[in-house]
């Protein structure tokens, strides 16, 4: 019997907070912490308008070698590791797949995505494709993909190789349990040891920007406001003390 490891998940409240901050603010916050590029380049939003965050289950694909993996889609299904990645799903999880940028392999289809949704999964981030996209759209999952294909996962050049191991997705290292934040700007990876700091720092930055928007809408000059000089910091601190409606 195949045994694969589960992940360690941070408190669910952190995912909710990060989801409300958004990918753009998080990339800036991580840059100030020395993480230069957390952006997963390649996959884009295929379910526009969704903003989600959750811990990463990971699935690694490798180039297919026929002595290790046969051609039949349903041959020995319990040896197919793409299933085992989803078996670990808990509510709020993302599944992150290193599919090597391949555009010919549909990593998950409607059945596997429905199973993932049924176990409480929220987001799918694949450096590659899914299939059954017309039906997958109705599952209310967040989908960040390179594309879609009618092919099944091992039909051409790939085979699933490992579950919940460090993977490369869109040029970014993803360690199981890292938080994925994804919206229409794309997906970013927050290292698990920085999640708490990013959640608090990012929320404060979002609040400051909301104040700046109200100021510039009134015609206040941008220099000294964004980024703030000492006068703007003092004015913001006073505004911050007021009851927020």
Characterise the protein shown here.
The chain is an alpha/beta fold. 31% of the residues lie in helices and 22% in strands. It is built from seven helices and 13 strands. Strands 1, 2, 3, 4, 5, 7, 9, 12 and 13 form a nine-stranded mixed sheet that branches. Helix 1 runs parallel beside helix 6 and helix 2 crosses helix 6. The longest helix has 23 residues. The chain is elongated and about 70 Å long. The termini are far apart.
Percent of residues in helices = 25-40%
CATH architectural group of the largest domain: 3-Layer(bba) Sandwich
Give the helix tally: 7
CATH hierarchy class name of the largest domain:
Alpha Beta
When the domains are counted, the total is: 2
How much is the radius of gyration in Å?
20 Å
What's the count of strands? 13
List SSEs in N-to-C order: HHEEEHEHEEHEEEEEEEHH
Choose one word for the global shape: elongated
Mean pLDDT: 92
CATH superfamily of the largest domain: Ribonuclease E inhibitor RraA/RraA-like
State the end-to-end distance: 56 Å
Output the structural class.
alpha/beta
Could you describe the largest sheet, including whether it forms a barrel?
9 strands, mixed
The CATH topology of the largest domain is Glucose Oxidase, domain 1
Give the secondary structure arrangement, pairings included.
Blueprint: H1 12-21, H2 23-32, E1 39-40, E2 44-45, E3 52-63, H3 81-87, E4 94-98, H4 110-118, E5 123-126, E6 129-130, H5 133-136, E7 142-145, E8 147-148, E9 158-163, E10 167-169, E11 172-174, E12 179-183, E13 186-190, H6 195-217, H7 230-241
Parallel strand pairs: 3-4, 4-5, 5-7, 6-8
Antiparallel strand pairs: 1-13, 2-7, 3-9, 3-12, 10-11, 12-13
Helix pairs in contact: 1-6, 2-6
């Amino acid at each position: 019997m195949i045994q694969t490891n589960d992940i360690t998940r941070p408190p669910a409240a952190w995912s909710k907070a990060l989801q409300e901050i958004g990918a753009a603010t998080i990339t800036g916050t991580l840059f100030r912490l020395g993480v230069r590029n957390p952006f997963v380049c390649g996959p884009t939003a295929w379910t526009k308008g969704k903003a989600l965050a959750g811990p990463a289950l990971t699935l690694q694909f490798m180039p297919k070698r026929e002595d290790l993996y046969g051609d039949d889609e349903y041959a020995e299904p319990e040896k197919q590791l793409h299933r085992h990645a989803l078996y670990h799903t808990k509510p709020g999880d993302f599944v992150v797949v290193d599919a090597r940028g391949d555009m010919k392999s549909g990593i998950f289809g409607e059945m596997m995505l429905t199973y993932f949704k049924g176990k409480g999964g929220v987001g799918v981030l694949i450096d590659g494709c899914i299939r059954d996209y017309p039906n997958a759209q109705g599952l209310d999952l967040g989908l960040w993909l390179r594309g879609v294909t009618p092919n099944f996962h091992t039909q051409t050049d790939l085979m699933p190789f490992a579950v919940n191991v460090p993977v490369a997705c869109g040029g970014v290292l993803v360690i199981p349990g890292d938080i994925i934040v994804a919206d229409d700007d794309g997906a970013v990876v927050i290292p698990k040891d920085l999640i708490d700091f990013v959640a608090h720092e990012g929320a404060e930055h979002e609040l400051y920007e909301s104040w700046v928007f109200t100021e510039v809408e009134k015609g206040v000059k941008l220099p000294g406001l964004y980024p703030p000089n000492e006068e703007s910091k003092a004015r913001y601190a006073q505004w911050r003390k007021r009851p927020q409606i």
